[in-house]
Structure formats: structure tokens, C-alpha cells
Amino acid sequence: MSTYEKLAHDAYKYGDEFVNRAPAIASQIGIPAEWLLAIIALETSDFKASGPPWGGRNPFDHGGGIIGFTGADGGAWEHMTPTQQLDLLPAYFTRLKAKLDISTFRSPIEAYFLVRAPGGLLMGPRDTRVGGKIDWGGSRGIQNATRQDVVDIATRIFKEHGLTWSEPTVGMEGKWSVRIGPWLGMFVFKSDGYVWYATDNRRSAAPGFPTAEPEIAESDRTYGHWEKVGASVRWRFGAKGNVYSDIRRWEAPLAAPAPGKKWDVTIRPVGQGFAKMWRGSPEPALTAAGTTT
Hints:
Number of strands: 10
Oligomer: single chain
Shape: elongated
């Protein structure tokens, strides 16, 4: 029995029925059962919060129950046992996955954001719109949590409980140059599901010297989330100030092209246009036939 299974099994009002029901619910959500138990444990202080009646609500959003349900969920959870609340989770996760255009998760950290603050998957590391505060103690006191705080704390807690995971390599991690019509920029894909873009503002250096390539400040990046779906990869970004306002969805077929070749990227919905991506420089030229090399 794993650490999280044992904690749930021994907890008041959780027990065998809860542990035995969790794998079926996790399968419907599309994550391992251990990830689901870890997320619930994080939200219930290792299954100590229980009900009905449910106490110990979050003081910031008045959330409670096994994943911090709020009044926005209709309140039915307040009259349910932990095991009964499990049956609310597939619809909850499905709704938010559709809203964020996400079908798979690379780690329990990504899945946890749908409970903590769904838009966090499209935020930058310093963004504080991820819900709640952190008591750092000492002179730092209580401060707003950043997205990176949430990642670091959840990662530490999960691993202290013996949870392990690996993020698969897809072959597109790293930096790509991008052209959309006259716009020239860059996309940078991270192994943890992060992706960001920025305008390419490199300035030509003096003759005989390489082109300068300064670091892109976080304030000049727009962040998002990417995933592998079947034989393609897709991603979306969160517009600054409102992570749900960028309607564009980006999709490219695998496998990624070799250096010196361009990658055709479709921007959805239909009518949003197309993009070209490539690694390295200079930009691959058009052939006489009008296709990219």
C-alpha cells in the first residue's frame, strides 16, 4: 500500500471505500490514481478534513471538501461524504480541461493546478493569480503565492510522500524561431509543459561580429501550456491580464523537422492563419516553387 493510500485508508471518514473508488475516478479524469490521491491529500491536510459537516474552509475562497469546492460549485458537496464527492470530480476536471484546451497532463503538478487555480497553467512563474497566500515565517511574513511557489511547494510535498513521476521527452523542447506574416518572434518549450513567446528584438551587430541575442525579460514573455496529443503537439497562451482571453490554439504535426527545415504550424480556430517555425538561423528560404526548405 502506497503512502497516500495508507493515509487515506487510516483517515477518519475516508477508509477502504474511498481508496477502492479512487482508481476508477482517476481513470475517468485521465491521471494515475496516486496523482489524484496526492492532490486530495494536499487539499485536505493528508485527509484530515472530513465531513459532512465540512469544516476548516479556506479563508480566501471559502472552499472545502476533498478538492476545495466553493460556493460556485452549487454547494451539493457540503452534504456528501469524501467517497461521494469523488463522483463529482470527472465532470469538474472535464469542464476545466475543455476550457483550457488540455487533454493530457505530464505531471501531478499540472493536474493540481486545475484544483488550485486552473489559469495557473497559462501563467508566468512570477504571476500571483494562483489563489491563496503562503506563510513564509520570520521577516517575510504572509505573502501572495506565485505560480512558481505553488510548483515548488507541491513538488516538495508530493516527493516527501514518495510520489515520483517523469516528464516524457517529445523532441521539441527548447527555442524555436517563428514567423507569422511580418512578425518574427520565438517560442520556447520547457519539459514541464511551460511554453512562452516573445518578439525577436535582436539587433544586428557590427560587420564581422555575431548577432546580439539578449535575454528576454519575463515581462516581455507571454506564457502558456503545451502537450503531445497523438501524432501532433498543441499549445495555447494566456493573454496578459486574462489567461482565458487568447482564443488561438496552435498545432503542429510530429515529428519535429530537422535543423534548417521549417515546421508548418496551424493556428485555430479556422481563419487565425498559419505560422512557420525553425531552429537556428538564418531563416530557411523559400524555394523557386514557393515552398519552404
